[in-house]
From TrEMBL:
One of its GO terms (biological process) is phosphate ion transmembrane transport. This is Phosphate transporter. Its main location: membrane. It is found in: Cell membrane; Membrane. It catalyses: phosphate(in) + H(+)(in) = phosphate(out) + H(+)(out). It comes from the Bacteria. It holds the Pfam family PHO4. Belongs to the inorganic phosphate transporter (PiT) (TC 2.A.20) family. Pit subfamily. The chain crosses the membrane at residues 12-31, 52-75, 95-115, 122-139, 151-176, 222-241, 338-356, 428-449. The gene is pitA. One of its GO terms (cellular component) is plasma membrane. GO terms for molecular function: phosphate transmembrane transporter activity; symporter activity. Keywords: Cell membrane, Membrane, Phosphate transport, Plasmid, Symport, Transmembrane, Transmembrane helix, Transport.
Amino acid sequence: MLHFAPYSTFSIIALVVCFALVCVFEFVNGFHDTANAVATVIYTRSLKPRTAVIWSGCMNFVGVILGGISVAYGLVELLPADVLSPPNGDPAVPMLISLFGTALAWNLFTWWFGIPNSSSHCVIGALIGIAIGDALLHTRDLGNSVDWSQIWKILRALAISPLLGLIGAGGLYFIIRHLVRDPELYQPPQGDRPTRGWVRGLLILTCTGVSFSHGSNDGQKSIGLIMLTIIGILPATFALAPNSAPHIVHIAEYATNATPLIQQYDHDGLRDEAVASVTRLSRTAPDEVVPSELRADLYEVVAGLKTVAANPQASAQERAMAKTLGNQMRPVVEYAPWWVRLLSALCLGIGTMIGYKRIVHTLGEKIGNTHLTPAQGASAELVGAGLIATAGYTGLPVSTTHIITAGIAGTMLGSGSGINRGMLVKIALAWVCTLPVTITIAAGLFYLLNR
């Protein structure tokens, strides 16, 4: 096992390496996804490229700072409880290396070939792979070891959001085309001449909206990854929220109420672990808490309560009670310090300012058979910003890349210009391959590192 004693020299080195990996991943996420926001203002000459990416980077930064953490923990809870919070405070170095290495490698691979790809898919695929690798390592049934309900919930959001982007942007473009008669909206810019005032202002506004909403959603993903890193390697310091003391006082009471629910409704075949955890929590003394052990037990119980809440055999009252108890326990372990938010915001914001040209060229010229027009860009970004912002505040991770790319394709279809089938096939192949490739690599890495 690649587990090092907490606060040893090796654990500190592992912390530095994993921190570097997560920062590089978020940096790459920034320059991989920045084209979604700046392609329209660059191709319509509304802003010069350098100005556009700096402005987009600043708005990404603000989005991360002002966004929540529901997406962050919605993602990391794809991991089994014993991986999400390793027992005995052992650092989860194999998990971190498998996660960051897989997601970063695939992100760089698709960026190099100028293919718009989803960083969200990379992370989710790697997390699922780790969950599968953990099941294989402990010879558990995949159906009982992986939280498929959470996975399907996230995958549904990832699958539906591009479709909504395609239809929504195409529909909005159709409406604009019939209501606004200004011909400049429907023509690619000529030479270096920028678009007129109000059209330029509209495009800058949509660029701002997409950049902010991208930060509020994608930034949460790196927050979750950073928290996995510091909690896995330095559990005594970061396992529990700094303001968790008032909640810990009530943990024994919550666990006592949860015990009959956990005992009655099997926790996906892992009932023994959940029952043992809820029994220990029911005897919790606030002045004798061991942070890493409390965190591990809480996640076992929260996972059990999620199963009860989704169990059709439980009554509506029992399901509601399970959901309430889970929400009451979460604040003890689900948090993000201000410096984690700041680090995520800086990495995403700086990354946004670099490396944008490959993807911008694809979005501006290769999605359709004609160059992007102001009306098409504005329609795609208005719809995209709304979808991304809504998802960010409801706890669902969505792909900015998929939504904006689908939106541009929708406007190309709406205008009658058609789409570039060759490029769309490449993008579709990248989308289809991302999950199986990242799942396989992460599962294999995690299994081998632990062997």
